[in-house]
Amino acid sequence: MNNIISECESKMKKGVESFKKELTKIRGGSVSKAMFDDILVDYYGAPVPLNQVCNINMSEDSSVIITPYDENATDDIVKGIQKADLGFNPSVDKKIIIINVPPLTQERRVELVKFLNKQTETYRVSIRNIRKDSNDLIKKLLKNKEINEDDSKQGQSQVQELTDKFIALIGSESKIKEEEITKI
């Protein structure tokens, strides 16, 4: 049964880490490089991550400077950024791509908070699903008489403690991000 508990904890940790990674893609008050992590560029017919075909730099005046390693890929990089639908409109100036990031409007902030809440609930549900799967495994052990009733109750109690802990973590991460989005 210890294997079930440790695997449950491991899966829940991975879920929270995945949630944190997802949060980096949601723009708060400032732009981060992480927002560009999942953008793919059609580079000579193959989808390649943006950060492998260019250098990405953030400037103080909330603009992003992208310098392609291969200037022939400039148009493909621009298309990849537009296709990612982050709300950015890149412009090309000689050999570099510039993205002027507009400040967030109140309307956009409200949209981002709604999206954040939806993502938060999705990850909470995934944690609850891990709890359900773990509890099912514990119940199966009990049914097969591999553990007794007390061990089953104790195991399910441990799974619930883990669930509460990781759902609280998701909640606190979400709250921090919401404050970042709504801060003017």
Task: Tell me what you see in this structure.
Helix content is 57%, strand content 15%. The mean pLDDT is 90. β5 and β6 form a beta hairpin. It is of the alpha+beta class. It contains four helices and six strands.
Question: Could you outline the blueprint of secondary structure elements for this entry?
Answer:
Elements (H helix, E strand, L loop, with lengths): L1 H23 L15 E4 L2 E4 L4 E5 L4 E6 L5 H10 L7 E3 L2 E5 L5 H38 L5 H34 L2
Antiparallel strand pairs: 1-2, 3-4, 4-6, 5-6
Helix pairs in contact: 1-3, 1-4, 3-4
Q: How much beta, percentage-wise? A: 5-15%
Uncertain runs with pLDDT below 50, 5 residues or more? none
**How many DSSP helices?**
4
- Average pLDDT score: 90
The largest pleated sheet is described as:
4 strands, antiparallel
Number of strands: 6
Distance between the termini: 49 Å
What is the ordering of alpha helices and beta strands? HEEEEHEEHH
- Order of strands in the sheet with most strands: 3-4-6-5
Q: Which features does this protein show?
A:
single chain; 184 residues; alpha+beta; four-stranded antiparallel sheet; two-stranded antiparallel ribbon; 57% helix; elongated
